[in-house]
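re the bet — no i am not wrong, look at it urself. input seq straight from the record:
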Amino acid sequence: MGNIETGSPLSGKLNKVVGNRGLTILDSGNFAESVDYRAYDDEGMKTSTTEVIRDGVLSHYLHNFSTAKKYRTRSTGNAGLVEPEPGTPIIRHRESARDLDALIGEVKKGILITNTWYTRFSNYLTGDFSTVPRDLSVMIKDGEPEFAIRHGGASSMVGIRISENMLRMAKSASRACGKPVQTTSWDSEGDYCFCPPMLVEGVSVTTL
């Protein structure tokens, strides 16, 4: 909620379409499978699961006691030391392929991204960001892996950059496959997310 007040691509979009109609995002503080599980937030409020986005529509913001009182609603159990903080986001999509091979088989031309680093926002208000794929990225052509993209200057980096917008990607997330699995970022501290492999159309990719 603090980001919503200070500037966010989701500001003023409550009950509006912000993602693909198959996309649902939950926030859970007490998801048993998460290593970030906790029974209570920093204000002692019992944690729960909040449906943030349902079928592409922004349905709830996250609140602590103070923001809930300000906006005449209830705390969602997301209090942090300073402002409301997410628990464990859980991303789901109702349009699902059988497995990853089947999802790749739907791609005429694209790239399989397995890991990224240095994800940075250039504009928090609009949701513009960039990130650098690393470790393994595979070029897909006509539903088949064609070659691994390499970069000669660093063993862990590949020679491409993704420059995109969070809302545009959310609206272009057309398919997923399998059960959401726990992921995190190399430069985050305790930030975890459950997300399935997902097909996002029209992503802007450039060379480094």
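see?? The radius of gyration is 18 Å. told u. also The CA atoms of residues 33 and 182 lie 9 Å apart. so pay up
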